[in-house]
Amino acid sequence: MIRYQSHSSATLSGKEIGLLYEGTRVHSRAYTDSTVYEIEMERIFSRGWLYIGHTSEVATPGDFRVRKMGRQPVIMIRGRDDAVRVFMNRCRHRGAAVCEVESGNTKFLRCWYHGWIYDTVGKLVEVTQREAYGPEFNQDAMGLTPATRVEIYRGFVFASLATTGPTLREHLGNAAAMIDLMVEASPIGELAVDAGAHKTVYRGNWKLVGMDGYHPNFVHASVIAAWQRKQDSGMGATHRDDPFDDKAASRTRDLGNGHAMLDLTAQRLAHYEVYTKFLRSVPGGPEYMEAMQKRYGEERAKLLIALAGDPHVGVFPNMQLINNQIRIMNPVAPDETEVIMFPVRLGGVSDAMNAVRIRQHESFYGPAGAGSPDDAEIFERAQRGMMAQVDGWIDLSRGLNREEREPDGSIVGRITDEVPQRGQFKRWREMVSAD
Ligand code: FES
Ligand SMILES: [Fe+2]
Fold first, then answer.
1. Looking at domain 50-160, does it have CATH number 2.102.10.10?
2. How far, in Å, from the CA of 134 to the mean position of ligand 1?
3. Is the pLDDT of residue 161 over 90?
């Protein structure tokens, strides 16, 4: 066992970094050390599958969004041929970012530095003052560099910068069915990620944004108390009867490959009647329930309606589907993380219903919401505390003695157990250790 007694600036190899997680504990250096961050950028964010965006964000040919793969800037763009592609946001001339606006629609991307022009399928269509280049200059080979692999699952666009490795479906594994739960909250199986986004940056490590069912009653105590006073139904009646109580029927799940969730299904099904009474009062609510039953059958529809499109899942390493949002985490530095939240609209439902969903999202997650600012604050406090590294181990053993294995290989625990944290770190260890 390696002993970490103090701050150390010694460079660690990937294998040594992997040893920072021991199954029931992880060392603070995993959160604070710049060598760890560098290895994560190389082995997780440049090799693994990362969520880039949703096809509905680039609905029309020429629509584009700039995104990041770890530190690397990329552009997701729908080409004139209607295909969605991901390119490195980098001019093939001298490397300037070709796209400086976050989103828009364009026929061409023109580099600001010397004016080279690319089209929406990445082809270099114009080189300014072209005559200065000789016959060996191969313009056709100088298009924008595509991300090495791009695959789309039900509108969710993922990319990887590794030439080999698991397919997206292999990587998603059990998490694919959780993405389905969000998509199939729509009676036509379509999401529209077009309601804007908001960003928050906190001074803490990206791995702090976890799936943690232990914290809500402490970090979110004030808002939970307010909900309990009000006893409103909310979308999915998430917070009735304290789903985050240790004895609640809610569960934590390690789905494998680093994907993990807070499974609130039992809680929500238990409050199905209360919730659907509320839903029926929203214009378009009764029609929604009918359309869901028609499309998915009674039993599946009940589950989908109860969950309200919220699988509460973290797809390792950079995406979460929580409440009514798709969330991207971008690690900026060991102690700085950008979180971008995209509330979704369900296709095939009334405007009133989508409005209720988005208002509810704003109330907890919005810039002036009651929840997200508390999370950001606690992440910063955790990061500050972890700078004390004389005895720098973080305990992750909660619930280890009572977790169980499901037939599909996933691990299940009580809602306050650290099953998700162990699942995420298991995958983290595999990836950082692999040469
Ligand atoms: S760097 Fe883009 S045109 Fe020169
Ligand atoms: Fe939280």
1. yes
2. 18
3. yes
